[in-house]
What does this fold into?
Amino acid sequence: MKFETKLIHAGQEADKQTGSVNVPVYQTATYKQDAIGRDRGWEYSRTGNPTRKALEDCIAALESAKYGLAFASGLAAETAVLNLLKKGDHVVAGDDMYGGTYRLFEKVFRKWGLEISYADSRNPASFKKALRRNTRLIWAETPTNPLLNITDIAALGEIAKKAKAILIVDNTFATPYFQRPIELGADIVVHSSTKYLGGHSDVIGGLLAVADAELYEGLKFYQNAAGAVPGPWDAWLTLRGIKTLAARMKAHEINAFEIAAFLAGHPAVSKVYYPGLTTHPGHRLADRQMSGFGGMVSFELKGGKGPAEEFFKKLKIFTLAESLGGVESLACYPATMTHASIPEKERVKRAITAALVRLSPGIENSDDLIKDLERALK
Ligand SMILES: *Cc1c(COP(=O)(O)O)cnc(C)c1O
It folds into this structure.
């Protein structure tokens, strides 16, 4: 099955009992058992729910994985992966990442004895150098949030294999429409399905796609044991969003390209981050490992925070808000919003400055979006 067909059909056959073409919302906590020790494949909805299972099978198919798992949020999915590790294990992570992931590492897992160090997201050699005898996990996000750095997944895959470490890739920004990390050598893909997969800013969720049975068993055990699962409605909404992923991602990318080109030529803008621009340092790598450049655009405004405040005030179509990947255009100020959980010193070291603005262009008409930006940049 080709990708666009999988979006509509993977995990989503017509309902066996009624023929319903959409997977029903199985709003139930528990399931009748026919006799002691004889259930019909379902026991309790923390352990398994048919609507959630459809979503899990769907993400596995989309990511060319064997197994899928759904969680209550992206961070809950990440927590499941970190729980594969134990005290004294070491993680190497790319240095540019979603602020909440950084907070999970530093404020939650470090105190349980996990060792974490950071490598230059753009440079595989830097990951290799950071390896320790006890490195169990290599963590990459690509393109990164918010600087849209590109990490070479195949190169990290080889490093991970030699080090007998697990490679996880956060594929939230690219989505499997533009990038499939497991095909490039990753072991696990994590998503905040809150973003492009859900696509309508109406549901929080997280997904894992897993290549290997043993890893899957560990994660599945944790999912049931800790219980941060999505309810059936959330799973259903996410599945519904996924059906239009291809159509939406194409539209997001067209708008992102036009906006990036517009910003690159604007006198009030000092820097544009978009991997589709040939001036982006990761452009060639992105061109090789992705089938498109995605929908996110970040840029720096000349003059820093003052002009940024003015800019956000004047926007009419772009909404100042956290999150991304919905059909409506959002604008965010990473320094005090999505990346506020990273201490200022670290933030500035990572180029998340007071001048940085992150845009998530929606699928509105690009003329309107550019007019909105033009007015706000005046
Ligand atoms: C939002 C986000 C997350 C966290 O997901 P939630 O659904 O908000 O818990 C993780 N990674 C990236 C890249 C994100 O943008």
User: Anything to note?
Assistant: The domain at 245-377 is CATH 3.90.1150.10 (Aspartate Aminotransferase, domain 1). The chain has a mean pLDDT of 97. Residues 73-75, 98, 100-101, 141, 145, 170, 172, 192, 194-195, 204, 206 surround pyridoxal-5'-phosphate (CB under 6 Å).
